[in-house]
Amino acid sequence: MSEASEPSKRRGRRWEVAGVHGAFVEAVPVEVVGLSLGGMAVETSQPLRTGGEYWLELETGERRLWLTGTAVWSRPLPAPGEQMGRHRSGINFEAISGGTVGDLSQFIRDHAGVDLTPSLLDRLGPEPGRPARLESHRRFEVKTLGAWGMLVESELRPRIEERLDLELRLDGFRWRSQGRIASLPGNGHAGRPVLHRLGVEFDGLTPERRSALEEFLDNHLG
User: What is d(CA 76, CA 44) in angstroms, rounded to the nearest whole number?
Assistant: First the structure.
């Protein structure tokens, strides 16, 4: 990993990196209407992106259970009169570990409202209104990185000055912040899908958090 050349207006050092990824994160208001060991059905006010990556957080007693999956279908639900319709979507879970399977099985048993046999366990969902949080993740690849910001390539094409929540994944480390779209340098490599280059400035970091990030980068990239 090498140190990137810096425009005079850019603050702090930036390093050219390879194999570093992250995602722009958007919370999606959701009601889980069906849950199994292989996936879930949800209702939302807007359709989910077919093929898009989503994360589900479930409250399981004292623990929080995170599950990742891909939306495989989404369709509108009938709405009477002029009422705004809702959408129902199906999400297939990615491969989950044995421990997570056990926690998910117990969650379904606790909230399905019936005694479950193994065959029923794979098909019944929780009672309505159980605490759940759904996030849309739009992936990006980091090209240069520093404590003040980064240059990324992504399918997402935001507006200049738009602020987005993001998660950075580096050497097993997950770090969340808000990012401001500071520049739109142009397209990345040609192909399908088209990738856009985005200059992102880390927004609203306290001095302590920025210092901790800078120390982490110095130790891992310096």
Answer: 10
